[in-house]
Design goal:
With about 70 residues, the protein is mainly alpha-helical. It has helices at about 1-30, 35-40, 55-60, 65-69. The chain has a domain at about 25-69. Helices cover about 65% and strands about 0% of the residues. It is elongated.
Length: about 70
Amino acid sequence: MKNVKTERLLTIIILLYLLIIIFPFIWVLITSFKPESEIWGTNALSIFGSEFTTEHYRSLFRGEIFNAL
């Protein structure tokens, strides 16, 4: 019985660790599809924004991002 509890606790710890590690990547992906006004606006912490845009990817592939560097 003790072995099952230890295994369950270890599984929970590993899942929490993975969530902490993976969350920033998911956040960046979600944010990359938001318009800039929504990223810096009052609802910046919302996961799903009101608009879906590929504006950032279009400027990246046009080479506009390299002018800022």
